[in-house]
# Entry
Amino acid sequence: MLVPNNYNPALMVAPPFLKKTVALATAFLSVAVMSACGQPAQSANQKKKSSMTTNQSTNVAKATFGTGCFWCTEAMFETLDGVISAVSGYEGGAKANPTYKEVCTGTTGHAECVEVTYDPSKVTYQELLEAFFRSHDPTSLNRQGADVGTQYRSVIFYHNDEQKQLAETAKTELNKSGAYNKPIVTEISPATTFYEAEAYHQNYFAQNPDQGYCAFVIAPKLDKFKKVFKDKLKLDEQATAKH
# Structure
């Protein structure tokens, strides 16, 4: 993801839940995209994402975000304490059960996104919104770095009225803050049917750390993400976070 020329974190007057990480925004957005997401290296030995079991948490909620390539979105949200699972998939289109190949044409209307199951007693929706806006360029229309098309749009699919209000408030406040010279173009839409992506897309970064996009795009972004959110990471992620 390229640093947007219009981004000026010094001008940001962030809403309360964003203030802690505003000063780190420039560093976090400084990773340049060197290749595109749509170049999977499939493996027969890829493990499927573990399903959430009822004994993990009885107090769970869902949130759905699209920040471009879902490999990166998934890898970042999975590090946050309170996130039970992050599943890559497709949402927002007209075709039922779309395939990755179909979504990549940009004609189905779906966005690559991640459905996050989380424990609100450990991580709030506001904190997930903070991670969402910090992790990509929300002023870039239908594009994140080298990934171009409506399937890579910045989008929040809300699951209830409270999520809708919080998302719209965050977007409005960021636009008013002067943080960007261009308006935020993040789509805020009601959640519809979420179609889980093919098995080889799940845990993609963890399964393919040496693949070009993973090594040169996701890994540096993830390192910066962990620095920004070091106090909100899972314990095992805190141990591996670079200081």
